[in-house]
Amino acid sequence: MKTIILSIAVVLVCVVLLGVKVLFIKGARFPSGHVGHSEALRRRGIGCASGDHGEKGTGR
Question: What pTM does this model have?
């Protein structure tokens, strides 16, 4: 029983720490995890695997 309670507590602490900015700053949002929204990946020419985001001339 102690292990379950400790596990739940650790997960809750992790969620709170990951969401500190979103939870406590007005207007803050989680960063997008989508490949198409990453400037660094676009500069390297890495795109979405589905290829349906309007890229022209990819041949797919």
Answer: 0.45
